[in-house]
Each structure stands twice: as structure tokens, then as C-alpha cells.
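Annotated sample (chain length 435).
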Amino acid sequence: TTVYLSVWWILTIVMGAVDRIIGFLCVFGLYLETEWLVVGLKPLPLTNSDRIEGIWDPRFDPDGPKPLPYKSIESLSRSRISCDWLKHKHWCRLQHAMTCIKQDQMVNRTSIANLHTGGRLGNAMTSYATMLTLRHQFGLDAMVDLTTFQMLDMVFSNVREVPIIEERVCVTRSLDWIPFNDHIRKYNSSSLNKGKAIFFWPSGLASEEYIHGPAQLLLPNIYNIRKAFTFRQRFSSKVKKRIDEILTDYTKKVNKKGKSKKVSKESCELVCVHIRRGDHLEYEALNGVAHLKKQYFLQAMDIYKEKLQHPVFIIITDDTHWAFTQIHRSFKPYFTGFFNASQQDSAGLDLAFLSSCHHMVMSRGTFGMWGNLLSGSSRILPKHFLPEMVGKPLDLKNQVPLLDLSHAWMDRKTRDDLREHCPNCVKMLKNNKTL
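Output written by the structure step:
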């Protein structure tokens, strides 16, 4: 016992000393930079009123841009990563310092790719899907940052194929990043796939197909993207239970009318009406775009009411009061009851519900776009922001759904070009309809 305790004491002293030495090197050597932002990008200005007590919001996380050894234990233990920093902090720090990628090691290795996320869950999904596709389609060592991974890991169980850049790279800002801001069709693998650190679309992945080609990039890989975004059991089970409650209530009320042919749950079709207001009202005002009025939602719901035999309308919204007062009772709408800004799982539950729909009336934003892509449902969507935006596409105020091929701004030349380079892209979204 005495020998064991002596060895343990010596190891503790040694590891403590190593830890301090590595910390010294991190500050004065490897991690000389004091600004921890990737390629100098700065987050959007936020106010304290945007912060919600008790909710982890990556936009307010001071650890987000720091190199791995300088993140707090809370940040490092929020999700399971390759090394357990909570239990083995000293070993993890030593292992990272010895194995992480430095600029002088980039010469003959596969190029690294990254895309800044910005925003919340919908944007994180876009970043991950883009990096996953760049790995599959171009063989790049594409990575996401830790906060993007953690946002997704809280909701999805299969988002570990794309590595975390802070785990693999010593200091992301120390690499000689080169921007790629062209249409994906112009990406040259022969000149870019070796020895480079490529920062894709620094201003954000544009929705317009003719600018960056999001449909041509992502749609051929949609199977793998959907597989990655597999919901964790707690989301799936709650949504399944709520859907069963709604269908039970609906069929009970319909069958109570005494019709000879009873309506079964299986014969019902879920029509999810996604009404996003909240922060989007401010973004629309900034861009001079009219807010979506109740007429848009009512007209779209009318189309499904006429088309389907047993439509069950379910409202998914961040403004329950507005939806309750504006959507006519004649549609017999149901509410999911999941939205709660002070609950961490709220967004994931709403997204899981959207992904379970047979049909969808879309609102603006990447959140609804991903709900629709995961469900594969038919959809009706509004005309979104004009191509002439204020600021950059990455700004939250300019977020618009990607892959909306039915937009008025997709001219014939762009559509023909898409058909030529990605023949299946237009066919894959044949259910799109624009009001």
C-alpha cells in the first residue's frame, strides 16, 4: 500500500508539472494568438435580453472559439468526445498537444475543410451536412467546431462521422486558411485536396442555387444526411406519443358523428403548419420583406384540406398566441405543446415533429427547411427573401431555406444548369409548391 501511494503521489506531481509546462507552452508557444476566432470572424452582436436563463446557447458561450485545452470542463463534458476531460484532464491535455495537427504538418496531408456555423440548430445542421458531403464527395478532411457538434449531439445520435476541429487541430486560427467562395461546381480537387486548410463560403452558404449551388452539393448525399440526423430516443418517443394522442382525439371526434365508415388513424395524414415569427419578424423588417400574414397559412391549409381526405392540421410555432388567434377553428388545428423557450429540448422536439409530417406548410428559416428535408414530405412554401439582401447570408437576419428550387428567383438558365450538372436534384423536390 505504501509503495502504491508513493507511486501515485509521484505520478500526480509529474502530471501536474507536465500540465503546467503544457499550459506555459500553450500561452507562449503553440497558442500565442490571443484572439481565438477562426479566420477572424466575429459573432453577431447580441444583447443580454437574448439570453435565456438555464439554457446553453452557443452564441453566448465564451469557450466556443478557444482551443481545446483552454475550454472549461463544463464545455468539454457537455457531450462525449474522444477523451474524457472530466476524468483525465491532464492526460487529455498531453495527448492533444502530442497528436494535434500543426501548420508544418499540412504539406502532404489531405486538406482540411471548415464552415462557420453561426446561429442555432438549423444552421448547425447545414454546417454538418455540408462537411459530411465534402468528406463523401471530395474526400476532404472536413470538420465542424465543438459547439456545432454539441448542438447536434444533444438532439441526434449519429453525428460523429464528421470530426471536431478543436480535437484534431492544435489551433484553428494558426493554419493558413484559404477561402473558397465560388459555386461548388468550380471546386478543383486536383489543386485543392492536398496540403490546404479551406474555409468554405466565409460569408455563409447562399440559398440561391446560382451562387454556391447548395442543391447540387447536398441533394446527391441526402440519404447519408438523413441517416446522420437520427433523433435521440427521448425526442422520438415524445413525438410519437403526442402524435398518437392527437390522432386518437381526432378519430374519436370524427367517428362520433355516426358516419357508416369509420376513420382509422392510419387513414389520417398529418399536415404540419410551421409558423415561425419571433426573431424573424425583426429580420424581415430589416430586409424590407413583408411578414407572412395569416392569409398565406390559411390558403395553404385550404389547398391540403381540399386535396386530402382526412388531413389533421398540427401547428408548430414559436408564437402560440398569434397562431391560436389567427388560424380559423374550422381547420380543427392541434398544437404540439412542445415550444418553451426556457427548455433545452424544445427546438429538438419541434424539429422531430416536423420530420414526422406527411405534408408541410413552411415558414421562413433553415429550421423548417430541415424539418421538411428529414420528413421528405410535400410542402407549400412562401416566397422568401429577395436575392438583394442587406449584409451577408450568414447573418441571422438573412437566413432563408436552402434548396428551395421553386423560388421565383431561380431563372430558366439556373434551372437548366442544375439539370445538366445534377439531373436528379430537381426531381428529388418535385413536391415543392410556392405560393
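Annotation: The CA atoms of residues 384 and 400 lie 7 Å apart.
Annotation: The two ends are 77 Å apart (CA to CA).
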